[in-house]
Task: inverse folding
């Protein structure tokens, strides 16, 4: 009896203690984070990390434009969304949780609120992506800007319902599939921006992998998995996809870019492991604010300076050389090949439009193109046929 009484008391005391300690540590974290954010805001004012989203789009008028953006309900995507709305752009927010998306934009002024359309998509499901793209094709005649921004990072190894490693599918495959499906309704001069990352540089493949990449190199099996490697591969794939699209749209006015928003930006991206959360919080005074992180994406998506230029990687609103692997046209074509193979096997009613053998579309002749780029693509295509003759 006495023993039961004492053990019940001990349990109650320990519960109260735990709650108390947890509350104190949450309070301490908030105080620390707010203090670091305060320093960061002052550093933003000093501008060592470049312009903010507002500054980059100050002279841009996006009335009559429609932009589709994935992962628009939080972090950098939300900041991009708010800035596009402020410039008069209609924004189609493609989000996993439409309730969270509604909450995220509740402070947008009413006159801009009617420019927002929220669409549900879960990027871990190709069926959900197909559903979204069917709805978009029914509801909209043209989309001018596409920003493929959603991502996950730091998650344990899991497979999606389509049997693929989650980061690979969410960060790259599903978003590329979405783009393939809505290509028909892209405006003739549409711009596509992949939110990529400098971390793509950490992938170094040997020659056999480069010559014949396979599904296991992209959707990593459990025994070879680290969350950082999976994330880096997905970001490498998005730059390679950009190069493939640059070739595909060579003689058209459609353009495609990759943008690195900045490193260690404190968003919900780091929420999956407390070590990342602590690291990103510590880096607050030394990293870009979210307003600054959105600037390169918006620059690529809207700047008139970039008309006639395509398939380039940007960082700090400036052209930047991607890694050698990421600029390899042979690999870009191979990855496009594997992507289509994966989709043919798994995606519902997949219509294979992005064939490697496709000649670049010639629907809009005499459009100014980046001469160096054209030259580079030609060289790479020659390199490609050389390699295929070598491997066949
Ligand atoms: N933060 C950085 O330091 C950093 C550095 C380099 C590059 N980037 C890139 O910047 C982009 C934006 O990231 P962020 O930092 O703003 O992170 P974030 O706040 O976590 O935003 C990621 C977005 O992706 C969405 N998403 C995740 N899984 C999804 C799924 N299965 N289906 C649909 N949507 C899904 C999230 O929706 P939920 O809210 O529903 O989860 C969220 O809206 C990412 O591409 C990231 O790789 C970030």
Result:
């Amino acid at each position: 009896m006495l023993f039961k009484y004492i053990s019940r008391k001990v349990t109650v005391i320990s519960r109260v203690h735990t709650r108390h300690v947890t509350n104190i540590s949450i309070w301490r974290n908030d105080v620390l984070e707010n203090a670091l954010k305060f320093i960061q805001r002052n550093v933003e004012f000093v501008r060592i990390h470049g312009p903010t989203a507002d500054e980059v789009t100050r002279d841009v008028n996006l009335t009559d434009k429609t932009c589709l953006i994935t992962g628009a309900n939080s972090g950098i995507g939300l900041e991009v969304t708010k800035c596009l709305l402020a410039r008069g752009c209609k924004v189609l927010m493609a989000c996993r949780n439409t309730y969270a998306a509604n909450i995220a934009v509740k402070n947008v002024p009413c006159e801009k609120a009617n420019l927002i359309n929220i669409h549900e998509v879960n990027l871990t499901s190709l069926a959900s992506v197909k559903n979204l793209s069917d709805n978009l094709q029914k509801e909209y005649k043209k989309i001018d800007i596409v920003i493929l921004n959603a991502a996950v990072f730091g998650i344990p190894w899991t497979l999606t319902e389509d049997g693929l490693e989650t980061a690979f599918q969410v960060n790259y495959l599903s978003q590329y599939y979405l783009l393939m499906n809505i290509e028909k309704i892209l405006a003739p001069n549409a711009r596509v921006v992949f939110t990529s990352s400098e971390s793509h540089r950490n992938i170094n493949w040997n020659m056999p992998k480069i010559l014949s990449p396979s599904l296991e190199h992209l959707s990593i099996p459990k025994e070879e998995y680290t969350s950082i490697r999976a994330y880096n591969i997905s970001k490498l794939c998005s730059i390679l996809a950009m190069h493939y699209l640059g070739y595909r749209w060579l003689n058209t006015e459609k353009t495609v870019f990759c943008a690195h928003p900045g490193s260690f930006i404190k968003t919900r991206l780091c929420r999956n492991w407390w070590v990342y959360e602590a690291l990103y919080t510590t880096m607050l005074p030394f990293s870009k604010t979210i307003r600054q992180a959105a600037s390169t994406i918006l620059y690529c998506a809207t700047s008139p300076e970039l008309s006639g230029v395509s398939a380039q990687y940007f960082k700090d609103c400036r052209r930047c050389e991607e890694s050698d692997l990421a600029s390899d046209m042979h690999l870009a074509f191979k990855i496009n090949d594997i992507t289509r193979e994966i989709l043919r096997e798994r995606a519902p009613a997949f219509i294979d439009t992005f064939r490697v053998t496709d000649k670049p579309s010639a629907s809009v002749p005499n459009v100014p193109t980046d001469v160096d780029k054209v030259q580079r693509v030609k060289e790479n295509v020659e390199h490609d046929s050389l390699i295929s003759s070598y491997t066949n």
Remarks:
- Confidence is low (pLDDT under 50) at residues 9-24, 362-392.
